[in-house]
Amino acid sequence: MLKRLLLLAAVSLALPLCLPAGAQTLDKVRKSGVITLGYIDGAAPFSYADGNGQPQGYSIELCNAVADGVAAQLKRQNLKVRWVKLTIQDRIDAVRTGKVDLECSTTTWTLSRQQLVDFSLMTFVDGGSLLVKSDAEFGKLADLDGKRIAVIKGTTTERALRDALTRRTAKAELVSIKTRDEGLTLLREGQVDALASDRTALIGVVVMSGRGGGQYKLLDQDFSIEQYALMLRRNDADFRLAVNRELARVYRSGEIEKIYGRWLGPLGPPSVLLSATYFIQNLAE
Q1: Rounded to an integer, what distance in angstroms lies between the CA atom of residue 198 and that of residue 178?
Q2: Which of 88, 158, 183, 278 is the most buried (most CB within 10 A)?
Q3: Mean pLDDT in residue range 177-202
Q4: Long-range contacts of range 73-79, CB-CB < 8 Å, 24 or more positions apart?
């Protein structure tokens, strides 16, 4: 009996040590005075590094607002923001291992990913599309039957594209790439017939390349819907609440309209779906 009681006491004492690292995010930020944010370069207009190597973009500005909100909640006026450049391939592990506290780019919220990480409120709604040369005789996805399509390996876009091609009994060859810039180069050189990614990100990669000039066009037909959100570690309800509290304030105050205008305004006003996303998520305190 005594051994059993001692065992139970030992287990009880060990439980706090077994809590996931993510559960201490706010405490870590409070004590260190630093919040670490991750971003992906080359994902304009959502996240990219400018000529001085500083992160810029729609998602970056949202995360800066979150950092200010966290600083206010923790009463740390001089909270420092440290930015870490990530890749599409390592972004989830960077969040899981604590390399970054929050990932700020174009990550789509999926249930399978939620087994590994957690997500904030949605930050954007986009759709998977195809970029082709302007003189290409492609009007819809089925027209790519027998053609070559570049797509970033391991993304939700790749999975959605495969499913969409299967439903249309179109047999296109998918060419794996690591970045959209790489895919645009392949498309420009004629090594692939199309580049698949999120519609807004495809516009961004063409604009940032400086090689637009009517050389490319987007197909009218989207093959998926992509719900972006900020990634954070699982099992950290307090930090998730702190992040969502600030995002909800941005949506509720109308500040999101200015942020959208700065980075996405040239593409036209927010879609009905995106406007509804902002409205539904402007949660009250």
Answers
A1: 15
A2: 183
A3: 95
A4: 73/242, 73/245, 74/26, 74/29, 74/30, 76/29, 76/30, 76/33, 78/33, 79/29, 79/33, 79/34, 79/35
> Is the pLDDT at 21 greater than 60, yes or no?
no
Six token digits for residue 190: 């004629």
Tokens of 154: 């391991």
Q: What structural domains does the chain harbor?
A: 20-125+227-280 (3.40.190.10), 127-225 (3.40.190.10)
* 271: number of Cβ within 10 Å: 13
Look at strands 118-133 and 173-177 and give their pairing: unpaired
pLDDT for 213: 58
Count CB atoms within 10 A of the CB of residue 7: 10
Going by the DSSP 8-state scheme, the letter that residue 270 receives in this structure is P
Which pTM value belongs to this model?
0.81
